[in-house]
């Protein structure tokens, strides 16, 4: 009988670990990588990555410590970090 209990809690534990892992990864991407955050022209970016113009979709690749320029394609000033 207790063998099934062990199997049951093993499955529950594995599922919980997968959910926790997914959640932790998303939290890591949001807080550490700043994915999904909005940045504006003139801001100095703390992380390298792709910054996508909210207006035309142009993707700027910036290194850490660089200042965001206006969009090279449409001169818009708001970007979303996508990678
Ligand atoms: Zn643009």
Please characterize this protein's 3D structure.
The chain is α+β, with helices and mostly antiparallel strands and 83 residues long. It folds into 2 domains: 1-32; 35-83, no CATH class. The chain has one helix spanning 2-31; strands at 38-40, 49-53, 59-62, 78-81. Strands 1-4-2-3 form a 4-stranded antiparallel sheet, with no helix packed on it. The protein is rod-shaped and about 70 Å long. The site of zinc ion has 8 residues, from loops.
Detail the topology: elements first, then pairings.
Elements: H1 2-31, E1 38-40, E2 49-53, E3 59-62, E4 78-81
Antiparallel strand pairs: 1-4, 2-3, 2-4
Bound molecules: zinc ion (ZN).
Zinc ion (ZN) binds at residues 53, 55-56, 58, 71, 73-74, 76.
Summing up helix and strand content along with how strands pair, one would put the structural category as alpha+beta
Strand residue content: 15-25%
Total domain modules: 2
Helix content: 25-40%
Radius of gyration: 20 Å
What is the count of helical runs?
1
The tally of strands reads: 4
Low-pLDDT regions: none
Helix-strand sequence: HEEEE
Sequence of strands across the biggest β-sheet: 1-4-2-3
The biggest beta sheet reads: 4 strands, antiparallel
Ligand names: zinc ion
State the distance separating the first and last CA atoms.
49 Å
Give the overall silhouette: rod-shaped
Q: Average pLDDT, to the nearest integer?
A: 95
